[in-house]
Design goal:
By secondary structure, this protein is α/β, with parallel strands linked by helices. The chain has helices at about 1-15, 15-30, 45-60, 70, 95-105, 120-125, 145-165, 170-175, 180-190; strands spanning about 35-40, 65, 85-90, 110-115, 130.
Length: about 190
């Protein structure tokens, strides 16, 4: 746990807050044109993408998970020119993800990348790249994604906070979108 806390503190020091704000502005600008947000990733990043779409949706930015593999087999048809794709990849070079990014870029979709590698195919293709790198994953091999998963979630949470703030999400709105569970009761102050 100490390693994870150290890596997140290091990410905070290396994070480009201006890039997070540029990403939030891009999303708001595209939404003003009727655009939507899609989030994708492959492997462990797919799980982060699914969580991120849910997180954004519950905090005033409707978002949809997009399967990167399905995207290049017809599902690109659900994405419109005014939309934004958030593509998550630790390496920034995952071939299945990059095929989806290239297909959507050709349709005019704007791209926000989240990666540990700014100088990657994803970094080169993205309108905005959000850095989510770590120096140590944890464990003997230092290969298995652990700390990098936390880093990508940390960056997505920062983006969601920026969007929530810019949109002025109120407790009442949140309560309407989250009528069930303990969080719903807290939001309603039951």
């Amino acid at each position: 746990m100490d390693l994870a806390l150290e890596e997140m503190a290091g990410l905070r020091a290396r994070a480009d807050v201006d890039a997070i704000e540029r990403a939030a502005c891009l999303i708001i600008e595209r939404e003003s044109r009727g655009g939507r947000v899609h989030v994708t990733g492959v492997g462990k990043s797919e799980h982060i993408a699914r969580f991120s779409a849910s997180l954004l949706s519950s905090t005033a930015t409707p978002a949809y998970f997009l399967d990167a593999t399905e995207c290049v087999h017809g599902s690109a048809g659900q994405v419109c020119e005014a939309d934004v794709l958030i593509a998550i990849s630790n390496s920034g070079a995952t071939s299945e993800l990059m095929r989806a990014v290239e297909a959507l870029r050709a349709l005019g979709t704007r791209i926000i990348g989240i990666s540990s590698n700014r100088e990657s195919p994803l970094g080169d293709s993205a309108d905005v790249i959000l850095y989510a790198g770590v120096s140590n994953e944890g464990g003997l091999l230092n290969l298995v994604p652990r700390a990098s998963i936390l880093a990508k979630i940390y960056v997505m949470c920062a983006l969601s906070v920026s969007l929530e703030s810019r949109k002025g999400l109120t407790r009442e709105q949140y309560a309407r979108w989250h009528p069930g569970g303990a969080i719903g009761r807290l939001a309603r102050a039951d």
